[in-house]
Structures are given as structure tokens and as C-alpha cells.
Write a structure and sequence with these properties.
mainly alpha; two-stranded antiparallel ribbon; 2 strands; 73% helix; disordered N terminus
Length: 288
């Protein structure tokens, strides 16, 4: 709302503090500051622990997963810094490419961990992790190819949050995408409470991860459904889920999966050193 004050022949209109354009708020709001700060903090955390983690890396597949985490983290940092690109028509192609690569990497990390959790047991999962990585890569490739066709072939604004509820095809695609993820996490929880519970990795952190991601996927699915029928609350809720996903998912993934692996690798390495020293006779001291 604006007010007008007439002084002679001059009309002075006081701008309303709520007169900002919604797109400007999405491109330059406090949520973007939170994205940047959280992404920077996680990069700093990875940097501080990089030397120790690299020494703990064992198999080549864990090395690849850790390298992918670094790559996706840097892409996500760039995505957080360059939010204003989605509001600039000249940067539309660049924004779509950056968003496509960033979401592709994050989805690859997520799908790989889902497939790992569905292995028969923890040790078999570790042994067959390379195959798991390959399967998840194929799934992510197909998903990324479809997104590329829709974004660049049909002009569907999948990665532009300013579209709101005006593009039903966009929201229909996201509904299918989130429904599949929610179904995957729901199946993990179903197995956890069934007679096949022992087939899941015996890690409470993995179960907690599945619970959090199932709830998050269900909320995102609900938001996309509301946005698809034109509800403004759905668009707002979806924006919130995007903010949470890009700000918190990578640290959550690291704490759930890689942090445990690094601890285990340290433990196994210590055991190996101990065994080597024992075989070499370092502990055969005669105390008599």
C-alpha cells in the first residue's frame, strides 16, 4: 500500500516497504545469504579435515565418492553464490546448466547411498559398492538426460523458482521425481520394521538418515503437489525445501556415511600397523 501527499501541484508518493518485487526477494533475500554461509562453512570444514580424510581413504570407490562430494560441494557453493542468475534472461542458459550439474551431482550421491542401504548386509554393501556406484550412475544419467530434454528442448523452467505455480508441467515432473525418492526411502523404512530387518546395515545413523529423508521427500512432494494446483503456499514451501536441501544435505550425508567410513578406515589401519609390528617381533620382549 502507498500513501500520497499533495503539496501544491506536487504529488509525493511514499513507497511501501512491501512493494519489492517477489523475484528480487528470491534473488537477493536472506535465504541466499543462508545458502552462501552454510555452503562456505561446509567447504571450510572439508578443507580442515581434508589431510586426515585423505590419509584414511582406502578403496578407489571411496576415493571416488569423496572426490565427487568435493566436486558437488564446490558446484553447490557456486550455485548458492549465483542465485541472481535465475532472474536474468541473459543468464538463463548458464543458470540451467549450473543447476543441472549441481542437482545431478547431489542426486548421484543420494542414489548411491540409497542403493548401498538396500544391500543384503553392511559388509556385502562395502564389497559391492563399485557395482552400486555404477547402477546409481546409470539412474542419474537417465534422470539428467530427461531433465536436459525438458529444460533445453521444451523450455520447461525446472530450475527457476520465480515461475511459481504458472507452469503445471514443471510441477508435474517434480511430483514424479519426489514421489520416486519418497518411495525409495519408504521402502527402506518398511524393510527396517519387517522380518528382513537384518538385511539392512546395522547402523542407527543409517536408519535416522532414512527417516529424515523420507519425511523431507514427503514434504517436498506435498509442496510440489500444492504448487501444481496453483497454491501460493506450495511454491513457498517448495522454496523452503530447496533452501534446506542445498544448505544441509551435503553435511548430513557426510556425517551419516563418510564420517563413519573414515573412522573405520582409521581403525583398520591401526589394526594393520599393530599386526605388522607384532609379526616383526616388536611385542616379543622378554620381561624376565
Amino acid at each position: 500500500m502507498s500513501t500520497s501527499v499533495q503539496q501544491g501541484h506536487i504529488n509525493i508518493t511514499a513507497p511501501s516497504p512491501f512493494a519489492n518485487d517477489g523475484d528480487d526477494l528470491k534473488c537477493n533475500g536472506y535465504d541466499n545469504t543462508f545458502l552462501v554461509v552454510s555452503s562456505l562453512l561446509f567447504v571450510l570444514y572439508l578443507t580442515v579435515h581434508a589431510k586426515k580424510n585423505i590419509k584414511s581413504l582406502g578403496s578407489y570407490i571411496i576415493i571416488s565418492y569423496y572426490a565427487l562430494l568435493w566436486l558437488v560441494t564446490l558446484l553447490n557453493l557456486a550455485w548458492s553464490f549465483l542465485q541472481e542468475w535465475q532472474c536474468s534472461p541473459e543468464k538463463e542458459v548458464a543458470w540451467n546448466l549450473l543447476s543441472l550439474f549441481t542437482t545431478c551431482g547431489m542426486l548421484c550421491l543420494e542414489i548411491t547411498l540409497i542403493a548401498f542401504l538396500l544391500k543384503d548386509n553392511y559388509m556385502n554393501g562395502m564389497e559391492t559398492l563399485p557395482h552400486t556406484f555404477l547402477v546409481s550412475g546409470i539412474i542419474v544419467f537417465v534422470d539428467t538426460l530427461l531433465k536436459t530434454i525438458y529444460v533445453f528442448g521444451f523450455g520447461v523452467p525446472l530450475f527457476n523458482r520465480n515461475v511459481g505455480s504458472t507452469h503445471t508441467i514443471k510441477w508435474g515432473l517434480w511430483v514424479i521425481h519426489k514421489l520416486l525418492l519418497a518411495a525409495a526411502y519408504g521402502f527402506i523404512l518398511f524393510v527396517h520394521f519387517s522380518e528382513w530387518k537384518e538385511k539392512l546395515p546395522p547402523r542407527p545413523t543409517f536408519y535416522n538418515y532414512a527417516v529424515v529423508m523420507f519425511v523431507f521427500s514427503a514434504i517436498t512432494l506435498f509442496a510440489c503437489g500444492l504448487a501444481g494446483i496453483g497454491a501460493g503456499f506450495g511454491s513457498w514451501l517448495y522454496d523452503l525445501t530447496v533452501l534446506c536441501y542445498h544448505s544441509l544435505y551435503l553435511p548430513f550425508l557426510y556425517v551419516t556415511f563418510l564420517a563413519d567410513i573414515f573412522k573405520e578406515e582409521d581403525f583398520l589401519l591401526d589394526n594393520a600397523y599393530y599386526s605388522e609390528m607384532k609379526d616383526a617381533g616388536f611385542f616379543d620382549t622378554d620381561w624376565e
